[in-house]
Amino acid sequence: MLGFVLSRLLTFIPTFLGVTLISFSFIRALPGDPIIVMAGERGLTDERYQELVRQYGFDKPVFQQYLDYLWGVLHGDLGQSFVTKRPVWDEFFSLFPATLELSICAMIFAVALGLPAGVIAAVNRGKLPDRALMSAALVGYSMPIFWWALLLIILFSGMLGWTPVSGRISLLYYFEPVTGFMLIDSLLSGQKGAFASAASHLALPTVVLGTIPLAVIARQTRSAMLEVLGEDYIRTARAKGLSPARVNGVHALRNALIPVVTVIGLMVGTLLAGAILTETIFSWPGIGKWMVDSIFRRDYPVVQGGLLLIATMVMIVNLTVDVLYGFINPKIRRR
Amino acid sequence: MSLLDIRNLTVEFATAAGPFRAVEGVDVTLEKGEVLAIVGESGSGKSVSMLAIMGLLPWTATVTADRMAFEGRDLRELSPAQRRKIIGKDMAMIFQEPMSSLNPCFTVGFQIKEALRQHTDLDRKARHARAVELFEQVGIPAPERRLKAYPHQMSGGMNQRVMIAMAIACNPKLLIADEPTTALDVTIQAQILDLLLDLRRRNGMALALITHDMGVVAETAERVSVHYAGQKVEEQPVEGLFARPFHPYTGALLAALPERATSRRLPTIPGVVPGQFDRPAGCLFAPRCRHASDICRARRPEPLGPEMGRARCHTPLTADGNGVMQPQRMVTT
């Protein structure tokens, strides 16, 4: 197992280099000059412009700039934001808990509803529950999430007034972050109503971000279950006189989980991409919004560093998924 | 009262091309402690009829019967929950493929204890002790260690022993074995059959053995019922069947046994079992039967009397192995 993890870690190296190269070249391929953007509407003199070009190393060949950047990365230095002058590393980790909290909640939402929905659909194959659930999943999957977010805001925030429209917590509450997770910190702070406020802020973004993973997980669970339900060991389980709930929920689901876990791992990438839209719509102070703002500002170090860190997260999640396979189904455990 | 008394069992599958009758008017009777062999080619409906009794058919199947009694209780009148109390406890089944019949995600110990938890009041420790005892009974060496193994870590023969241990966990009164040795090596086959017969003798359970191996039938069964294309075409005590088959299909099956062969080439039965689309109007075996006449092709035969092995045949075999038109059949038809 350890050898497997180490060998997988080795494959991270080319992926890691690829991500640095792609993020480095793509942001430079975009039209626009970070120094002009920084100067804003006031503009700046030619001499000052040349000075800044030299200061940021833009006068060197692009290849040299890349190597400099890579050298920094290897030493744990992701550079400083052009805009805030703070290290990318610090910015990322002050914002990441917000995204992580939102992503975890969205994933829990998607798995908690998607797995049962897929199981119910598979067990009632071709009947009304199956058709209803799978049509709903298709709608959920096809819907643009910004539109879905706006619909939910109109209904729950606008018409019903149940949830706030933006932010992580009401301005009435203030406490120092401990974990960075608002749900936990609000509880730790002991302030009355803080947790409810944090939860109500989190509700809509969670639903919006979790909708596509929910739909994908439901459909994947259904198809995996259908395959498994025809297996001999399901017949054996039924021949033992086990209840349908146990046959489907234990014997079938455990086997159907492999493709579902694969999809969940892949969805983490989608989730972080979806977080960009969701965070922008709900003004959620996470890395999604941070990345979008940085792209508009041509804040090269932030875009490069942020992408690299996000890619690393996705790689780690997928490694975890590979390790999980062996725990779910010992037959495919690597020796 | 018979242990199992099934009358006129019919199973139909709903398929895209319309209903398909896999079992047609089959009677099954089984006394306590008896060994019944059910033989027939692939597609003769022998497995399906047993799965119907166990209630294990997929939802596309419709099961009808005039009577479906187990220990005098009509299975059709039980709710699914009531039926699950019988299935796996008083009536158990083992299958053809031991490797795929056990769940790869759970240890065999988990799977056998699960059966115990479902049907007995034993606590965790007692279940473990019982599982060890069962593994010893079915001849699994080092049971304590084997309980922790996963199915893929054991051989097919060992897995079939686990399946048997699981099936007999609650001392069933009836064990249905669906070709339990087909997927195993020849040397293991004999061991598994001996084990089944031994358990049956010790526990006094009835055994319904589905097979297409006439050699197995001769060694194990007390009574044999021969199925063809969803019908039971003949039923006799084992000695009688081997000495004097009445149905030409039974005769042809026996003639195909290597030990009975008289020429260098084994005799075969030409053709295949009729499927959904080529079901004959008359006797289902008529297209492949050497003795078929016009009436065979025109009219389905009804079972003859018990003295004729209840053979579904217009021209049952005589003692010298030739087909002869039954005079009384001609009058009634």
UniProtKB/TrEMBL annotation, chain A:
One GO MF annotation is: dipeptide transmembrane transporter activity
The protein's UniProt keywords, in alphabetical order, are: Cell membrane, Membrane, Transmembrane, Transmembrane helix, Transport
Major site of localization recorded for this protein: membrane
Keyword Transport attributed: yes
Under PROSITE patterns, the record lists: ABC_TM1
Q: Per its UniProt record, what CDD domains does this chain match?
A: TM_PBP2 (cd06261)
Identify the Gene3D superfamilies for this entry: MetI-like
Q: Name one GO cellular component term.
A: plasma membrane
Q: What kind of membrane protein is this, topologically?
A: Multi-pass membrane protein
**Protein family according to the UniProt entry:** Belongs to the binding-protein-dependent transport system permease family.
Q: Which SUPFAM superfamilies match?
A: MetI-like
Q: Outline the extent of the ABC transmembrane type-1 domain.
A: 96-325
Entry superkingdom: Bacteria
Q: What InterPro entries has UniProt attached to this entry?
A: BPD_transp_1_N, MetI-like, MetI-like_sf
Regions that span the bilayer: 9-30, 100-124, 145-175, 195-217, 256-282, 302-328
What is this protein called in UniProt?
Dipeptide transport system permease protein
Q: Does the keyword Transmembrane apply?
A: yes
Q: Where in the cell is it found?
A: Cell membrane
